[in-house]
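User: Hey, quick favor. My workstation is busy. Could you predict this chain's structure for me?
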Amino acid sequence: MLLDTFGRRAVDLRVSLTDRCNLRCGYCMPEEGLPWLPKAELLTDAEVVRLVTLAVGELGVREVRFTGGEPLLRPGLPGILAACAALEPRPDLSLTTNGIGLARTAPALKAAGLDRINVSLDTLDPVTFRDLTRRDRHADVLAGLAAADAAGLRPVKLNTVLLRGRNDHEAADLLSWSIDRGYQLRFIEQMPLDAQHGWDRAQMVGAEEILARLGERFGLTPEPDGQRGAAPAERWLVDGGPATVGVIASVTRPFCRACDRTRLTADGQVRNCLFATGETDLRAALRGGADDRELAELWRKAMWGKSAGAGIDDPSFLQPDRPMSAIGG
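Assistant: No problem, here it is.
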């Protein structure tokens, strides 16, 4: 198992497949993009599968989520999914994507073994979308959502970041739109993971404000105790249910005490926390001839040293050098 000194067990693995992205969302990266990792530094498809196999077979991981960057840019994605779906015990397989290209690939991803999908969508307005992402691809994301739903990648979940003065007025509209289509909406507080290190807590739209805006149009009832588990989102029944809305309040309501995640970057580094400032290099050990026992021990040691919390409220908090696109969502 992957345990830490606080008794938490990591059963949810986040695997970044690339640091590249075809959008330029301002809260993630600058308009000109970033220097991408050289291909030789990325884990190969076979290396990804080997490490996921180790995590599932030896370390107790039960859920695997593929992220990026934009994971749909990884050519070998269907093959990686198929190999992971064939593992025993079979892990739950999910994917976080910006939705561009999903209309074309959703059926193949489902056939390869993907169970469900999360799509980032911050606005219903194509003009605002272009302003936020610096790309005119709003229609492609909407088409991708419909294709994912039609392919059976359910529940289709939407991830939304509200930015003050830009899309925060859309909160209730986004929820209404999502409910009408059977999608599950989750608002995510903007986190200090931008490449520019320009995050400003004073400008962040926090959980209380999000809920207040939603409450102007909907009746929100907290989900019954015990149903959240280690999930990052607090959920509310909308107008009595069955529809729900979630809020991931990583900044104002940290959920570190129940965290069950371990992370693997596209270049083979284990991170025991999204906000960690240190990493453990599995790629070098793997390419140096380490066997599975040695790799497992490195992974266990990395998780054993996990801090009690991310420490965002601590005056000594330091933003990770890597941005979200290089860490993996």
